[in-house]
Structures are given as structure tokens and as C-alpha cells.
Amino acid sequence: xxxxxxxxxxxxxxxxxxxxxxxxxxxxxxxxxxxxxxxxxxxxxxxxxxxxxxxxxxxxxxxxxxxxxxxxxxxxxxxxxxxxxxxxxxxxxxxxxxxxxxxxxxxxxxxxxxxxxxxxxxxxxxxxxxxxxxxxxxxxxxxxxxxxxxxx
Amino acid sequence: xxxxxxxxxxxxxxxxxxxxxxxxxxxxxxxxxxxxxxxxx
Lengths: 152, 41
What we know:
The complex is a heterodimer.
Chain A: H1 5-31, E1 38-40, E2 50-55, E3 58-66, E4 69-71, E5 74-78, E6 81-89, E7 94-98, E8 103-107, E9 112-119, E10 123-128, E11 141-147
Parallel strand pairs in A: 3-6, 5-11
Antiparallel strand pairs in A: 1-9, 2-3, 3-4, 6-9, 7-8, 7-10, 10-11
Chain B: H1 12-39
């Protein structure tokens, strides 16, 4: 196959850029321990909204979405907390997006989705439903309040 | 003088477009990459 010299150069540059993207992703995945959410086997224990404090900076949040609220609606955490979110729905499919964090999950009836988030900066992080779920969808939100170490 | 259609044609516009396309894609891609890394902190 005859390929023009300039076409060869363009192909080489394109492949180099794609390789750069792939290695950047692998680098970030290893350095920042980022991972995709998991889907856990269904267990009724996760359908009751609660916050478990495992130690001073490790928490479990069992978040339950329903028309049109998230429970718990306010989650108070100290700075530097690592939180495992276990998410499910009581009715239809809802979205679960934490602003300024790489969290984008679906709350699905009969399924448990899990992700881990670290909150190193103090502030208020809004959790919003980003999957249309009915007339009250736009008011469906919750907050993660990351305070200084004296937080509740 | 050689005829106009036998001159060596160099597609300068296409080269410039390709280089700009690569640079623009790098800017967009690493912009989102950086934002997502900031969101992990």
C-alpha cells in the first residue's frame, strides 16, 4: 500500500496523541486512585438511610433516593473524610451527582451502587438529582457539609 | 516555465488545520482532565 509521506506523518502524530491520552488516564488512575462506581448485590440493609462513622475520617453513607428527596438530606463531615456512598432508590430511577466531585451515579430501585469520595476541602457540596424523575425533580437535592474538624 | 498544474502542490492550509485541530483537542482534553483531577481533591 502506497502512503504519502505527509499522510504517514499525520498518522504518526495522531497515534502519538492517542497514546498520550491513554497514558495520562492510566497515570491519573494510579496516582489519584480513581475508580468507577461498583454495583453491589442487593441487600435490604442498604435501603434504610443512615450515616455510619467508622473512624474519625472514614464514613459510610446509606443514601436513599425517593420522590423527591434524598435521605439523609444533610451530611456533616470533618475535613479529610473518606466516604463510601451506598445508593439506592425507593421508586423510580434518580440521579446522584455531587457538585465539584467526580460522582455521577444512578439510584435504581432494587440495586445498590457504591462509590468512594474524599472531601479534603471544607465547603458545602450539593447533591442533585440529574435524571428527570417527575414533577418535583428540580427540588430534589441534598448537601454534604464539610466543616472544619469540629463538625458534627 | 512549467505549466501551473505540474507545480509541486503543498497543502499548507491542510497542515495548519491539522496542527490546530491537534492543539485544540489537547487544550479541551487536558482542560477536562485537570478539572477532574481537581475534583478528586
